[in-house]
From TrEMBL:
FAD binds at residues 25, 241. It comes from Xylona heveae (strain CBS 132557 / TC161). Keywords: FAD, Flavoprotein, Oxidoreductase, Signal. Its EC number is 1.4.3.-. Its cofactor is FAD. One of its GO terms (molecular function) is oxidoreductase activity. It is an enzyme of class 1 (oxidoreductase). GO terms for biological process: polyamine catabolic process. Belongs to the flavin monoamine oxidase family. It comes from the Eukaryota. Pfam families: Amino_oxidase. InterPro entries: Amino_oxidase (IPR002937), FAD/NAD-bd_sf (IPR036188), Flavin_amine_oxidase (IPR001613), Flavin_monoamine_oxidase (IPR050281). This is Amine oxidase.
Length: 503
């Protein structure tokens, strides 16, 4: 390898800071730089628009033939905040940009099995009783530096054992997999509870569902408009990064279109999915501690499948927001249904959607739309009777794990993986910094993760540009557990995970 200095490429466009990706993390990082008077940056983005995984599309049509807008990615503001208490920054921004949204009422749920309506809602309360013990146990694991375990073992030890009861399995899926996009077997008890508490106990347990017909990313565009001019040359859309060459003197980024950018510092905001799929080459190759961290965290897939029925033939009870279906054979088979044909959502639209995750997502992603539509309709016929389910006028779903700019939906924390390992995902390599939804040890998976991590990376680099650089900590040797003294800002830990405020 040539010495680092020789790597600076004289023919590339020069900038102080290159921001790789224009999702929420990238835009928030650019905003933090702007706020600290660093305006010499370039944002490189794969897609033709900003927002990343906050992505929408048009679907179906109203009675005038005008298509509706539905969200393929992020859909809720999660954990809003309470009067006089702290507030989720995403909620603050949603209000600032008048994003249309409606309270998601998780008690507004009807339960079904293969024979139609069947009231097993008592199981929802049962689960929550066991969960109270489970979350307390997670607290002991964290504060006493005990061995972490899977959510499955934790729930079992707390007394929740759904076993072959498919209604209990459906309830468990609704309570867990639907949020984490992973099964209890594949998730950490300790950090799933941290993730839940830092959002829902710090702020509040309320989630609001976004139905804004401009698209949810209107709040990201709004924020960007405060520091980027219209057609600002610092935002380079439709630019695919292929190779990142980094050293202690700078970072050079080579793009698929043959262009390159030579930056003093760079922030890579690509998803764990993108990093795991080796579509971007790093030069020099990533050190073992970084590679191990990338391969140790997981990228979940969350798929919403949309159907539009003739609005005058809506056959489900539109006084419920949620319908839960327990397949008699397969856990996670088209379990959670949401009606958009409700006041506050998209009334008179005839739109219903169902969500699957992980293995069921991969399965539907590998099928064509027709085959999947038949499966979905077969479930609806079990729930409502074959004579009551008309032919849908539109059907559509995204294939998140095949998107070359995301390779999945959002990250998750596997059992037995420590905060030290996580910090290695987050830590910089010379002048190349990493930030994104996945680099937050507390809010991972949520929009608030991207917001805080973007802000943090932008601020760190603004200080670097001003000659006051502090790199981030990394661990060459991992210790297998995490001492309580390590839950600090240096490892990305910003609030106590056992603080309760909201309720
Ligand atoms: C289906 C789904 C549902 C979700 N639901 C919710 C929810 O309800 N509430 C919530 O809070 N969060 C939700 N999330 C999570 C939320 O969307 C993410 O946490 C957040 O948007 C991540 O932002 P980011 O900037 O870190 O990453 P991204 O949005 O992925 O931004 C990274 C950017 O990098 C770009 N990029 C990637 N590769 C390259 C390359 N080679 N060259 C150039 N650019 C590249 C991408 O195009 C992208 O724009 C959901 C996500 C999905 C997918």
């Amino acid at each position: 390898a040539s010495p680092p200095l020789a790597r600076r490429n004289e023919t590339c466009q020069k900038t102080s800071v290159a921001i790789l990706g224009a999702g929420l993390t990238g835009i928030t990082a650019a905003q933090a730089l702007s706020n600290q008077s660093v305006s010499d940056f370039i944002i490189l983005e794969y897609n033709g628009d900003i927002g990343g995984r906050v992505a929408h599309t048009t679907f179906g049509a109203d009675k005038h033939g005008k298509p509706y807008v539905v969200e393929l990615g992020a859909n809720w503001v999660q954990g809003l905040g309470s009067e006089g208490g702290p507030e989720n920054p995403i909620w603050t921004l949603a209000k600032k940009w008048n994003i249309s949204n409606t309270y998601s009422n998780y008690s507004s749920i009807q339960t079904f099995n293969a024979s139609g309506y069947a009231d097993y809602s008592q199981l929802l309360d049962d689960f929550e009783d066991y969960y109270a013990t489970f979350e307390q146990d997670a607290g002991y694991i964290l504060t006493e530096n005990l061995q972490d375990r899977s959510v499955r073992s934790g729930l079992s030890l707390a007394g929740w054992k759904p076993k072959k009861n498919m209604e209990a399995q459906a309830v468990e899926w609704w309570e867990f997999d639907w949020e984490y996009a992973y099964s209890p077997e594949q998730s950490s008890q300790e950090f799933a509870v941290v993730n839940y508490n830092t959002t829902f106990y710090q702020w509040s347990d309320a989630n609001n569902f976004v139905v804004d017909q401009r698209g949810f990313n209107a709040f990201i565009k709004g924020e960007a408009s405060e520091f980027l001019a219209k057609n600002d040359s610092r935002l380079r859309l439709n630019t695919i990064v292929k190779d990142i060459t980094y050293s202690d003197s700078g970072v050079t980024i080579y793009n698929k279109d043959g262009s390159c950018v030579d930056a003093d510092y760079a922030i890579c905001t690509f998803s764990v999915g993108v990093l795991q799929n080796d579509v971007v080459e790093f030069d020099p190759p990533l050190p073992d501690w970084k590679k191990e961290a990338i391969d140790s965290f997981s990228m979940g897939t969350y798929t919403k499948l949309f159907l539009q029925f003739p609005p005058d033939k809506v056959f489900w009870n539109t006084s419920y927001q949620f319908l839960l279906y327990a397949s008699p054979t397969t856990r996670g088979y088209y379990p959670v249904w949401q009606s958009l044909d409700l006041d506050g959502f998209i009334p008179d639209s005839g739109i219903l959607f169902v969500t699957v995750v992980q293995d069921q997502s991969y399965r539907v992603e590998s099928q064509d739309d027709e085959q999947t539509k038949e499966e979905v309709l077969a479930v609806l016929r079990e729930m409502y009777g074959p004579e009551n389910v008309p032919v849908p006028t539109s059907f559509m779903y995204p294939r998140w794990s095949k998107e070359p700019w995301a390779f999945g939906s959002y990250s998750n924390w596997p059992p037995g993986t420590t905060l030290e390992m996580h910090q290695n995902l987050r830590a910089n390599l010379d002048r190349l910094y990493f930030a994104g939804e996945a680099t937050s040890p507390e809010y991972f998976g949520f929009l608030q993760a991207a917001y805080y991590e973007g802000k943090n990376a932008g601020s760190l680099i603004a200080s670097c540009v001003k000659g006051n650089c502090t790199g981030e900590k990394n661990y060459d040797v991992l210790h297998g557990t995490t001492k309580s003294s390590e839950y600090t800002m240096a490892n990305g830990w910003s609030v106590s995970s056992f603080l309760t405020w909201g309720f």
